[in-house]
Amino acid sequence: MPLYVDPMACTGCKICQTVCSFVKEGKIWPAVARVEIVREKNGKDYVNACRNCKNPKCMEACIYEAIKFIDDQVQINMMVCTGCGACVRACPFNAIKIHPVYKKAVKCDFCGRCVEFCPPGVLKMR
Q1: Kind plus residue range of the DSSP H or E element containing 35
Q2: Smallest Cα–Cα separation from 84: which of 66, 101, 70?
Q3: Residue 60: helix, strand or coil by DSSP?
C-alpha cells in the first residue's frame, strides 16, 4: 500500500524521518531515512517519499533491472542494485538516494512505520 501525504498538514516535526531511520538502520540517522522532510523557501514543510509512480522513471533508468513492481509497489532489489545512481538521477521527485555505507539505492518501501508515529496524522497508507 503506497504512502499518502497530506501536503497541507505537515508541521516539519521530522518524527517520520527519525522513525524511518531507526526502523531501517537500527539507529537515529535522518540522513539515510527513506522519507525526508523538506522545507520550501516560503517556510512550508512537506514529506518527500517515493510516489509509487505508474510509469516510474527510476525503473526505466535502471539497466540492471533492480527496480521492479512487486505487489503493485515500486521496489528496489538490493541484491541486484549496483549503486550506479541512474535511478537517483531519473527520479523527478528526488525520492531515491544512495546509501552512504551500503552504496546501494534506497527509497521508501511503504512499510508504514512512519504513519504510526506521525503526530498530526499527515501520513497515511492508501
Answers
A1: none
A2: 66
A3: helix
Distance CA 85, CA 104 (A): 8
Give me 83's grid cell.
549503486
Q: Compute the half-sphere exposure of residue 60: CA atoms within 13 Å on the CB side of its CA.
A: 9
Q: Which domains does the chain have, with CATH numbers?
A: 1-49+110-126 (3.30.70.20), 51-107 (3.30.70.20)
Question: Which stretches of 1-126 are assigned E, i.e. beta strand?
Answer: 3-5, 36-39, 45-48, 67-70, 73-76, 97-98, 105-106, 123-125
Are the CB atoms for 98 and 83 separated by under 8 Å? yes
* pTM of this structure: 0.89
Angstrom distance (rounded) from CA 86 to CA 103: 13
In terms of pLDDT, which residue wins out, 45 or 66?
A: 66
Strands 45-48, 36-39: pairing kind: antiparallel
DSSP 115: H
Residue pLDDT, tens place only, 17-46: 999 999 999 999 999 999 999 998 988 888
